[in-house]
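Narrative progress, year one. The postdoctoral researcher (J.K.) led the effort to move from monomer predictions toward full complexes, under supervision of the PI. The following entry was the first complex the group processed end to end, covering 637 residues in total.
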Amino acid sequence: MTAELTPAIQLQQLRYAWPQQPSLLDITALTVQRGERVFLHGPSGSGKSTLLGLLGGVLQAASGSVSVLGQNFTALSAAQRDHYRAAHIGFIFQQFNLLPYLPVIDNVLLPLRFSAERRLRVGTDERALVVEARRLLAELGLSAAIQQQSSVMALSHGQQQRVAAARALIGRPGLLIADEPTSALDADAREAFLQLLMNECRAAGTTLVFVSHDRSLGALFDRQLSLQELNAVNA
Amino acid sequence: MIILRLSWLSLWNRRGTVLLTALGIAVSVMLLAGVNKIRTDMRTGFANTISDADLIVGARSGPVNLLLYSVFRLGDATANVSWSTYRKVAAHPQVAWTIPLALGDSHRGYRVLGTSEDYFAHYRYAGDRPLVLGQGRIFQGLSEAVLGAEVAEALGYKPGQSITLSHGVGEGSFNEHAAHPVIVTGILKRTGTPADRTVHVSLQTLEALHDAAGADLTPESLTAFIVGLRDRTATFQIQRDINEYRGEALLAILPGVALQQLWEVAGVAESALLVVAAFVVFAGLLGLLTALLTSLNERRREMAILRSVGARPQQVFALLMSEAALIGLIGAVLGLAALHGGLALAAGWLEARFGVYLLGNGLTAFELITGCAVVFAALFVGAIPGWRAYRHTLADGLTLRV
């Protein structure tokens, strides 16, 4: 069995509940193929963020299995899952994605500091890492002046989200999880950001799981999933 | 490594509040190390002030009192010793030498000591070091004075200069012996003892100042005198003889024993000061804890970002701990630097006002240990917010709760 043949995401009989709370997620089966771009929608409180936590290996399923890029998370310790996440998964959140005390470039390079495996995919010396970070920022439409910004707080919200996208994409992770990354952007910026993100994922062969409550964006994706329909708890 | 870098940059980003927190620790470290520095230097300085003297004799008072006014020129004698009694003791077959001490006058705030050539011959300090002249010669006749190094330096005096002495002690003495100026004949090399701050004249010179009409310049009395014995084993015998002398109420003390008594008295106050200073350090660390805990909630987002890029909860824990340790380190370094800077500036004043001579300005073992202890304590304190951040990251997952 080669890694390329395994799906990007495979959930089976997944159940999860936050401590002292009723069951939140109960998903019988879900498979996302490699390179697929999936739109996952559901109202707030439907368990989207919890599902992303499970996919990222930050949370551990109560029962059932979560496999990401062929790796079964239920077989890994918390530290191993952290390590796997650092090497193979990129995240973009709704807003405030960046560490305010790091310059733009250092924010982009952050995942490479926590995973030697991901760093080696980019290069062996610091210069190669910076070159790749700049390339990604440029592809995402950020000028050289913005790339050299020492404070991310000086950037507009849309610019910050692009820096976050570059950070999620650096080192070619197999899976990119975007949690409402466009909800704080205006309509024009939203389309543009989404196109850039899709292009980069296609170029890198990265599987994209895009979560939003705004269903108008769904048509741009290969597949749309409704968490409410997947989740047996709501049924 | 990345954690240390992140904690440093994070601190730099919040440098205003971080500096205030570190200053709180710095002040406490400065206080603790300062109390100890002055304590140890004072002890060493006092112990080094008089060596090789077997007994100090004065009018009957307390041993500590006699030691302080005779050797350290702190405070004043309550009564004097008559000249005839002094001569009797000096003539005792066991007595090798004596140094007479007559205090009570001053020159521009510096004490004037009436004594004899024996002072320069027999006085020893810091082990067995004698007094050495830097310039000129010792006094020989009337109206001549030998200055301590500090006096000459502070007032810019040279041999050959004429000065006037004042009756009484302190800068406010206006009752000058203006009719009897004295000539500076010599200046002693620096000793780090009260001799540096003393104007030395002969007993006869003093007598001439006070009793201008009299032709007989034999003094009537002394403040105290120092005794050196031929045979040290006789010390206790001679001490008892002097203490039981019927002609006059005298007190003979062994300098080392009196010094020990002084430390027993001072020790209580010193310990109290050290305990207070230690509690101030504790308060500084509490300030650090407060600062870290209050910043924690607004930093939950930052922790979630770090988790999303692959940081383990232990690394989040380590981030908080290293931030605390860095603040502790900054505080300790600032505190010790401020202490040494401050001591360098205050050295002259401490010498003149309290007779405390600071010994060098290097880092002492106590200061090094205090600094390290503060850093470790800060690390320990950092474990509390670290633990809370660790719990947060486990509970929050990747949700950026505000």
